[in-house]
Design a protein that fits this description.
The complex is a heterodimer of chains A (330) and B (524).
Chain A: H1 2-19, E1 22-29, H2 33-51, E2 55-62, H3 64-72, E3 79-81, H4 85-95, H5 107-110, E4 113-114, E5 117-122, H6 132-135, E6 142-143, H7 151-167, H8 172-184, H9 193-202, E7 208-212, H10 213-223, E8 228-231, E9 235-237, E10 243-245, H11 247-253, H12 256-264, H13 269-277, E11 281-282, H14 285-290, E12 299-301, H15 303-307, H16 310-318, H17 323-327
Parallel strand pairs in A: 1-2, 1-3, 6-7, 9-12
Antiparallel strand pairs in A: 3-10, 4-11, 5-7, 5-8
Chain B: H1 2-19, H2 21-24, H3 26-35, H4 37-106, E1 109-113, E2 116-120, E3 127-142, E4 152-166, E5 170-177, E6 193-204, E7 207-214, H5 220-223, E8 245-254, E9 259-266, E10 286-293, E11 307-318, E12 336-338, E13 344-347, E14 356-373, E15 376-391, E16 397-412, E17 438-449, E18 465-478, E19 483-496, H6 506-509, E20 513-523
Antiparallel strand pairs in B: 1-2, 2-3, 3-4, 3-20, 4-5, 5-6, 6-7, 7-8, 8-9, 9-10, 10-11, 11-14, 12-13, 14-15, 15-16, 16-17, 17-18, 18-19, 19-20
Helix pairs in contact in B: 1-4
The chains are: A alpha/beta (330), B alpha+beta (524).
Chain lengths: 330, 524
């Protein structure tokens, strides 16, 4: 009987193991859907060739802040690929799912690609929007998501604020006045970048969309260059969307190895090519040069330079009672 | 626009008329030129005046056009502004709806229906459900030698069933019993007791581990839920099957239920008995296991999809005297074998007196199967129970090979499908609208054959029967998914026993048992 039970147990475990499929959950921010659909297919092929195992990567998208909160609340992400480091810091600090120094584990501060904030305007640019000054003019309707929930929105806010600081000699009061005027021109605050794109493109609301560069290109690609134009302002912000393995979740799922490989592969030539094809600025210089035509050169300021890092920027501008709460009244 | 056009035409006509006078009357003009140069000058003046008038008219026209144009521009701008406002309002409404949907999605869910009362966290990782089972029975015996308490109305089962899931993969169930309980057990009649209390970890459908108190994986009829049985009571075959016990079990369904397996280590209980003390009474353990296949479950041949066959079994040893479920000698209300009417027809009551206890090995083997197709259902089982026993007075030992089997079938007269998990009426009882629920006709035959070696050293042939044969017919009325009313008749005849006496089992085996059952059942 004991032998029989052993055989039964072994058979069951063998059957279960054979039927097991490696699954990863990538919790990401709003506009990366298309990037990761393409990248996941490439990675699955790579992993199959390397190990013989099948890997299926499920995607979850939404406003970066909301996504981070979902992971904190129990969404079992194996990896997170969010819009800004602060959101992954929150997962580390509040849920202790990964170490505080997570950003040192991969090159370029765990940011395999970068992006920036540009303007998407209607064909012919009827309001003549060329620079940040133009978006704060009375009568210009601006579409941008809510910085409380969207990473892209926080980048857009900081880009505008940085422009004001640069323009007005780092006079914070004037910068605050500038950002107040900007948000007075915003009729709808969506929770994520994709929502704002829908507001601007599908609902035809507003004169200008403050968009991720990749999202603006995607809108152009999907809806046609005869409907929209991209205007790149002379100055914007260097957006660095980071990636990280959620250690405790991956360990629990037994996916640590494949999760690490998944993120490492973003830095490979193929990963960088896919990023560039999806209008993210690749870190790899050779591939960046190959796709240089897709990316207008502009002055890019960083959060560290202008705002003293994400933690400070978050506390000053986006925390409850921060500048955004002071200047924005729906 | 029409008015404007008419005015313009009129003005032009007047101007042309004045300007054309010299051409319309040339003779007059020539005479005037020739005779009076002053008149020529006047004409020149008139021409200049006409030109001035023409310019004025043109200016007026332009002004008029501009005045006409301005309101149109204003209207267009207003429309665009309004259009944007409407679009913004629509978008805000959409966003509000999305936000409300997201909030609703994050709220715990509560549901109440035929399946019971359920609370669930938004992500379904935590679920708590409340079910219940109440069975009110009536038994009417013929020729029962006036055994007290046989005839009457009883609360056969009264169980609140609390079950659920925590952290997605851990299921639990807790089932207390406030009804009559299992006949034969020491606590049967009155004491509330715990029937199920277990935790089940689901790694996958194919690999699950259960721990606690629950039904061991041996008998097909016994594993069927109490609320779905064809008859009020299980058959003679289940007299040889182990009842609820404490243990650990590995189980699962492979390939979507094509093959189900279960194997576990339990404390071990006697035939037809359950563990009532929630503890062990000996140091040894019993291994129980079962394999069940539904080979055509995924077949396109519908008629074969619900054919299932399997085998269950157990193996264990008893090393010490027990008082908690294994056969013993006190007879009467304790261990032995029971009729459909829950009367004891066999007891371990040696002719010469003394106690009989389990001794040595005890194994069971139970080939089993069912078949359901449309309104037809068939369920059968054969059981061999090889029980080592010892007469503690004479120290004589034996291995008694008791056998039992049953075959039961049903036909749903109203056409609904019969299944191992019950019948769902197509038209729940609602007489005001001419709906009466579902009716099922059921029949069963069963036998139990006690090893002849049991007599007389381990059982008294004068009082305990060596064989029981039972047939039953019944009608089940499913008013709806939750309410069921049964009525059935069972006749059990005996071989052996029948001797003098007014106590069981003699009083039971003196005549065939004829009993009319009714039941009103609530299950949800």
């Amino acid at each position: 009987m004991k032998t029989f039970l052993k055989i039964l147990l072994a058979s069951t475990l063998a059957i279960s193991a054979g039927a097991k499929e490696i699954k990863l959950l990538n919790v990401s921010y709003d506009p990366t859907r298309e990037l990761y659909v393409q990248y996941n297919a490439a990675f699955a092929k790579y992993w199959k060739t390397k190990t013989g195992d099948d890997v299926v990567v499920n995607q979850s998208h939404g406003g970066s802040g909301k996504q981070a909160q979902s992971v904190i609340n129990g969404l079992e992400a194996d990896v997170v690929t969010l819009a800004l480091a602060y959101d992954i810091d929150a997962i580390s600090q509040q849920a202790k799912l990964l170490p505080a120094d997570w950003q040192k584990r991969l090159p370029n501060n765990s940011t395999p690609y970068t992006s920036t904030i540009v303007f998407l305007v209607r064909k012919g640019n009827p309001k003549g929007i060329k620079d940040w000054d133009d978006v704060v003019k009375p009568g210009v309707s601006v579409v941008v998501p809510n910085p409380k929930t969207s990473g892209g929105a926080r980048w857009a806010y900081l880009a505008a604020y940085a422009y004001a600081l640069e323009t007005y000699g780092h006079d914070d009061a004037k910068a605050k006045d500038f950002i107040t005027k900007l948000y007075k021109n915003v009729p709808v605050l969506d929770s994520g970048a994709r929502g704002s794109t829908i507001t601007f493109v599908d609902h035809q609301i507003g004169d200008v969309l403050l968009a991720w560069e990749n999202e603006a290109h995607l809108a152009l690609k999907e809806y046609g260059a005869d409907k929209f134009e991209i205007v790149t302002p002379p100055l914007s912000i260097l957006a660095e969307p980071p990636v990280a393995v959620v250690d405790k979740n991956a360990k629990r799922h037994g996916t640590t190895e494949v999760a690490k490989a998944y993120l490492d592969y973003l830095y490979s030539d193929e990963g960088q090519e896919i990023a560039a094809e999806n209008f993210y600025r690749p870190r790899n210089e050779a591939i960046a040069a190959k796709y240089a035509a897709n990316f207008t050169q502009l002055k890019l300021v960083t959060v560290d330079q202008e705002f003293g890092g994400w933690a400070k920027a978050q506390q000053t501008h986006f925390a409850d009672g921060g500048v955004f709460d002071q200047i924005y009244a729906p | 626009m029409k008015m404007k056009s008419k005015n313009m035409k009129l003005n032009r006509l007047i101007i042309l008329a004045i300007a054309g006078l010299p051409f319309a009357f040339p003779a007059l003009a020539q005479d005037n030129t020739a005779t009076n140069s002053t008149e020529a000058a006047e004409i020149q003046t008139l021409k200049q005046e006409i030109q001035a008038l023409d310019q004025k008219v043109q200016a007026l026209e332009q002004r008029h056009d501009a005045e006409q144009q301005a309101p149109a521009d204003i209207s267009k701008e207003q429309i665009q502004t309004l259009d944007q406002k409407v679009r913004v309002l629509e978008r805000l409404r959409e966003n509000d709806q999305d936000a409300a949907a997201a909030v609703a999605k994050a709220q715990p869910k509560i549901s109440l229906g035929a399946g019971g009362f359920s609370f669930s966290s938004a992500d379904s990782n935590f679920v708590a459900t409340l079910h219940g089972l109440v069975q009110v029975d009536s038994r009417t015996f013929q020729h029962d030698n006036h055994i007290q308490g046989n005839d009457g109305i009883l609360l056969r089962r009264a169980r609140p069933i609390f079950s659920g899931t925590v952290f997605h993969d851990f299921d639990f169930q807790f089932t207390p019993e406030f009804g009559n309980g299992t006949p034969g057990a020491a606590s049967a009649a009155t004491a509330p007791s715990i029937y199920d209390a277990f935790v089940n970890y689901r790694y996958s459908p194919a690999l699950q581990i259960e721990a606690g108190k629950f039904k061991p994986p041996v008998g097909l009829e016994y594993l069927q839920s109490d609320s779905f049985m064809f008859f009020n009571e299980r058959s003679l075959a289940t007299d040889l099957i182990p009842g609820r016990d404490l243990g650990f079990e590995l189980h699962g369904d492979l390939d979507g239920g094509l093959l189900s397996y279960a194997a576990g280590i339990f404390n071990g209980v006697g035939d037809g008995q359950r563990n009532t003390s929630n503890t062990a009474f000996q140091n040894n353990r019993e291994l129980d296991a079962r394999l069940f296949v539904q080979p055509f479950k995924k077949s396109k041949t519908v008629a074969l999809q619900n054919l299932g066959i399997g085998v269950g079994g157990s193996w264990g040893t008893s090393s010490i005297t027990n008082t908690l479920g294994l056969p013993n000698t006190t007879g009467g209300t304790l261990a032995g074998f029971y009729t459909d009417g829950q009367q004891q027809f066999f007891a371990y009551n040696p002719t010469g007196g003394g106690a009989v206890v389990a001794h040595g090995t005890h194994w069971r083997l139970s080939p089993q199967g069912y078949y359901y197709y449309g309104p037809f259902g068939l369920l059968g089982e054969y059981v061999i129970s090889d029980q080592g026993v010892e007469n503690s007075a004479t120290l004589q030992t034996a291995n008694l090979k008791n056998k039992a089997w049953d075959i039961a079938g049903g036909w749903v007269l109203t056409g609904e499908d019969a299944t191992y998990t019950g019948v769902t009426p197509r038209h729940p009882f609602d007489p005001r609208n001419g709906n009466w629920g579902a009716l099922q006709l059921v029949a069963r035959y069963a036998e139990l054959d006690v090893d002849k070696a049991a007599f007389p050293i381990f059982a008294n042939p004068a009082t305990s029967a060596s064989e029981a044969h039972s047939w039953s017919v019944g009608l089940n009325w499913y008013l709806n998914k939750n309410i069921r009313v049964n009525t059935s008749f069972s006749r059990t005849t005996f071989t052996g026993g029948g001797g003098a006496g007014t106590t069981v089992p003699a009083a039971v085996t003196q005549h065939p048992e004829d009993v009319l059952f009714t039941r009103v059942q609530l299950s949800f």
